[in-house]
């Protein structure tokens, strides 16, 4: 097997010293344009790339960022990752994304790998039931960290999230204002974090209406599960006329479920999602939702980490963005109101 291209070989091909070649590759020193181009041409010829870890050790700055998330395939997460990557790239950083699948053991191995590779910072959606030992590990290694979506109250990390309770309360009030009196909450099965905050907003809104009883129906947050859960919910509670969904994926699945049994979303049963993923606007019928721009949210997340890296002694920051109610075709007054 051929050896990896080395800086010494670049210097030899360019006819310069190793020190001069090193300065050119680092963009340092007073090197003539002619010499600089000769070194760069040799590097291109040899397919040489500088060792980022060595450069980080010299400068004290590592340009590699780790992002530990779960359900990378979820369209919302994909958009967030895109926003993170674009912002970090403009700041000279690269991001590596790993999927914890909401498993604390898998998550710990990933975080340990990020620490061993001396990542310059961490973006992190904590897994369910993350133990205190994981927090102590990150603190011990003093890695700049920003948590995302799930806020760990016991950890003093910067955080970027969504006003989940406020958003679902607003969605629930909107359905109640349309005249719905039997409103269910569909989706998710987590027992902490984002889902509980959203359910708290749903419950609070119903309590304020006094004439609406809560009904919470679990379901994994994907279209297939949403379809099956909507069918089961309708069989058990055929009087339900409106559903607040834990996310757009389960809402789109619920919409398909209603259509499968001959019901029309927005006429027979109103549905409202959360996130406003690209598929929400082009679903049939288009989905009403609580919109959060995931791409811009990703950029905000990345900016918070860059600020932490550049200003390590600044106060801990918590950023929560609001969601906008987007009314499309899956919400309307209940049938009895439409017929009057």
Structure write-up:
- By secondary structure, this protein is of the alpha/beta class.
- The protein has three domains: 7-50, no CATH class; 62-161 and 294-320, Response regulator (Rossmann fold, 3-Layer(aba) Sandwich); 164-292 and 325-338, 3-Layer(aba) Sandwich (Rossmann fold).
- Helix content is 48%, strand content 15%.
- The protein has helices spanning 7-14, 18-26, 33-46, 52-59, 75-90, 104-116, 132-141, 164-178, 194-209, 223-236, 248-260, 278-282, 294-310, 335-338; strands at 64-69, 94-99, 121-124, 145-148, 158-162, 183-186, 216-217, 242-245, 270-275, 288-291, 318-321, 324-326.
- A six-stranded parallel beta sheet has the order 2-1-3-4-5-11, sandwiched between helices.
- Strand 3 (121-124), helix 7 and strand 4 (145-148) form a beta-alpha-beta unit.
- Helix 1 (7-14) packs across helix 3 and helix 8 (164-178) runs parallel beside helix 9 (194-209).
- It is elongated and about 85 Å long.
């Amino acid at each position: 097997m051929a050896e990896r291209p080395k800086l010494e070989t670049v210097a030899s091909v360019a006819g310069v010293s190793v020190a001069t070649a090193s300065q050119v590759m680092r963009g340092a020193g007073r090197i003539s344009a002619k010499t600089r181009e000769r070194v760069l041409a040799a590097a291109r010829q040899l397919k040489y790339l500088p060792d980022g870890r060595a450069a980080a050790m010299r400068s004290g700055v590592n340009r590699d960022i780790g992002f530990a998330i779960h359900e990378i395939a979820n369209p919302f997460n994909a958009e967030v990752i895109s926003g993170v990557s674009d912002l970090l790239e403009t700041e000279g950083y690269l991001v590596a994304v790993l999927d914890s699948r909401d498993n604390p053991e898998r998550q710990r191995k990933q975080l340990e790998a990020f620490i061993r590779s001396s990542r310059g910072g961490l973006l992190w959606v904590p897994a369910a039931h993350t133990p205190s030992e994981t927090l102590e590990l990150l603190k011990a290694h003093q890695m700049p960290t920003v948590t995302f979506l799930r806020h760990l109250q016991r950890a003093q990390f910067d955080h970027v999230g969504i006003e989940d309770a406020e958003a679902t309360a607003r969605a629930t009030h909107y359905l109640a204002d349309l005249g719905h009196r039997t409103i269910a909450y569909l989706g998710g099965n987590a027992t902490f974090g984002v889902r509980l905050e959203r359910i708290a907003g749903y419950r609070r809104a119903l309590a304020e209406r006094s004439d609406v009883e809560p009904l919470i129906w679990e379901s994994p947050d994907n279209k297939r599960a949403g379809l099956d859960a909507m069918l089961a919910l309708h069989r058990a509670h055929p009087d339900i006329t409106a559903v607040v969904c834990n996310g757009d994926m389960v809402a789109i699945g619920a919409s398909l479920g209603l259509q499968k049994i001959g019901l029309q979303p927005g006429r027979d049963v109103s549905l409202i999602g959360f996130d406003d993923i690209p598929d929400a606007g082009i679903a049939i019928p288009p989905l009403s939702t609580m919109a959060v721009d995931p791409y811009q949210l990703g950029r905000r997340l990345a900016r918070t980490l860059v600020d932490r890296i550049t200003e390590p002694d600044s106060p801990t920051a918590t950023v929560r963005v609001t969601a906008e109610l987007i009314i499309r075709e899956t919400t309307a007054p209940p049938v009895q109101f439409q017929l009057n």
